[in-house]
Specification:
heterodimer, A: about 110 residues, mainly beta, six-stranded mixed β-sheet, four-stranded antiparallel β-sheet, about 0% helix, globular, B: about 110 residues
Chain lengths: ~110, ~110
């Protein structure tokens, strides 16, 4: 079945540091790929998405590129802020079914001033 | 628009008790989903619905039942709660299009003693 593997956390960074959170996937067909963010005590919000190979999703300074050859969708940000502290989930959606989402286990990011 | 709302926000049950979680959306979405979130496990799909009157099982359906009598509401029931069902439950919804984003509610934190 489909699966998503993302790096374990927590990831601890100082403000303005560069962020990478790795995500790789296993899927049949051509899934859409997503990054969701969960701030403390809240539900999940879509951060960015990509629907086909070589697409780059971007939002709020975050970006990720859909790499079919390496089955990866790594999340990056050039300069993190304290307000970016949250849990980040990588997910895939199989477009051939009812697009149910398969999630990774989540990576907690902690940014200190 | 209220988006996706969930009722209640918190609940404590004793083993064997029953309860129903309500999810409501005002975006006229066709598809609705129930997930549970457990530490270190990410989100796992319990049940989903692709339209009024239809439901389907997800990855972890045992011990839960669902109903979708109205397009805007998706109910999750626990007939006889068990401590293993202690979790945070999230509802999500989206339009039918294959690349459309799922929108999440704020979650219900359920503790079964």
């Amino acid at each position: 079945g489909d699966s998503v593997t993302q790096m374990e956390g927590p990831v601890t960074l100082s403000e303005e540091a560069f962020l990478t959170i790795n995500c790789t996937y296993t899927a049949t067909g051509y899934p859409s790929l997503f990054w969701y963010v969960q701030y403390p005590g809240e539900g999940l919000q879509l951060l960015l998405k990509a629907t086909k190979a070589d697409d780059k999703g971007s939002n709020k300074g975050f970006e990720a590129t859909y790499r079919k050859e390496t089955t990866s969708f790594h999340l990056e940000k050039g300069s993190v802020q304290v307000s970016d502290s949250a849990v980040y989930f990588c997910a895939l959606s199989d477009p051939t079914g009812y697009s149910t989402l398969t999630f990774g286990k989540g990576t907690m990011l902690l940014v200190s001033p | 628009n209220a988006g996706v709302t969930q009722t209640p926000k918190f609940r404590v049950l004793k083993t064997g008790q029953s309860m129903t979680l309500l999810c409501a959306q005002d975006m006229n979405h066709e598809y609705m989903y129930w997930y549970r979130q457990d530490p270190g496990m990410g989100l796992r799909l319990i049940h989903y619905s692709v339209g009024e009157g239809t439901t389907a099982k997800g990855e972890v359906p045992d011990g839960y039942n669902v109903s979708r009598l109205k397009k805007q509401n998706f109910l999750l029931g626990l007939e006889s709660a068990a401590p293993s069902q202690t979790s945070v439950y999230f509802c999500a919804s989206r339009f039918r299009g294959s690349t459309d984003t799922q929108y999440f509610g704020p979650g219900t934190r359920l503790t079964v003693l």
